[in-house]
Amino acid sequence: MTDVIDLRPDPDETEPSSVDFANLDSDQTDEVDQAVDPAASLKRRRIILAVIASLVVLVAADAVIGAAVHAEHQRHLAAEFAIPTEELAVGDAAFVLQIPALGINEVVVEGASASELRGGPGRRLDSVQPGDSGNTVIQGHKTRFGGPFGQLKDLKGGNSIYLRSRSGEVTVYKVTKVRKVGSDQVKYLEFEGPNRLTLVSSAGGPLDGSRVVVTAAADDLSLTSENAGDTAGKDGAAAEAAPTASAEDEGAPIQTYDVRGLGGAVLLLTGIGLIAVGILVGFDLKKKYGWGAVLLVAGSSVALGVIVLLFNISMVVPTTY
C-alpha cells in the first residue's frame, strides 16, 4: 500500500489568512489598518487633521477679523456721528455711549440685529429713545466683533453712564442693578415705566443663552424702594450690585431677533465645507506643486470659508456673544 504524502506546506511557514480584530487593541488595529490599506488610513488622519485645523483657524480668524470689522465700523460711525441729523435709519450712528468706569467709548447704532451689532452696540428699535419716559435697551457683543460689552459684569451700583445724541443732548444714568439672568427671564426688556437705560450682553459661552443685564436710572430721578438697596456711593466707591431676579418675575414675552433660516443654514454649511475642502486639497497640492499652489488654491478656499462662516455663525450662537 502506497503511503500518502502530505504536500500541504507547514502551517508555521504560511502567512496568516485572517486577523482577529476583536482581540486587538487600538494601537494594533492602527498598525493592521496601515498594513492592509495605508491610503485609507492616511485619508482618515487627514480628515481628522482638517477638522482640528478648521476649528483652530475659525477661532483665530474670529478674534482677528471680528475685532478689525468692529474697529473699522466704529471709525466710519464716528465720522457719521459728527454730522447732525434728525432722521435716523437702521444702522445709522445714533448715540455715543461712554462708561468711564470701564473705559467704554462706543458709537451706538439704530437696531440690534446680528448685522448691526458687528460694528458696535445697538439700540433695540422697540425700546424708547434716551431721555424719553420708558426703557432704552442697548445690546452689544461680549466676545465677538471686538467684545465692546465684555466687561458689563464689572460695573458697580452708582457708576455713571453717559449717552450723547447726534443733536448734542446728553443723558446721564446711574447704575442700579447688575445681574445675570437666564434666557427665559425677560422682564428687564419691558419698555414702560420711568426713564431708564438697560445694557444687555451675553453672560456665558457661545451656546449659553444667559445674559448680563445692567439697569441704570436717569440721574435726575430719585431712588425707589426697588433700587435703593442696589445703588451705593459714587463711581469707584460702590458695592457690587447683583441681585438675582426670580424666573417667575422675569417670565414676560420677549421680541427677539431671529437670524435663523434656510439661507443662513446653507451659508453656514458652505463655509464649513470650503474650509474642510481647502485643507484636504492642500495636502495633495503640496506634494505635486509645492507651497505656492497650496497658498493660492487651498488658502483661498479656507479664507473664503472662514469669512462666510464668521458672518453667519450668529444663527447658532447668541446674538450678543
List the helices and strands and how they pair.
Elements lengths: L25 H11 L1 H44 L11 E7 L4 E7 L3 H4 L4 E2 L11 E5 L20 E6 L4 E12 L14 E7 L8 E8 L43 H28 L1 H20 L11
Rough shape?
elongated
Helix percent band: 25-40%
SS strand fraction: 15-25%
- Our measurement of the CA-to-CA distance between the termini, rounded to an integer number of angstroms, reads 92 Å
Instruction: Record the strand order, biggest sheet.
Output: 1-2-3-4-7-8-6-5
Could you characterize what this model shows?
The chain is of the alpha+beta class and 321 residues long. 33% of the residues lie in helices and 17% in strands. It has an eight-stranded mixed β-barrel. α3 links the parallel β2 and β3. α1 crosses α2, α2 packs across α4 and α2 crosses α5. The longest helix has 44 residues.
Give a summary of the structure in a few sentences.
Helices cover 33% and strands 17% of the residues.
Keywords:
321 residues; alpha+beta; eight-stranded mixed barrel; single chain
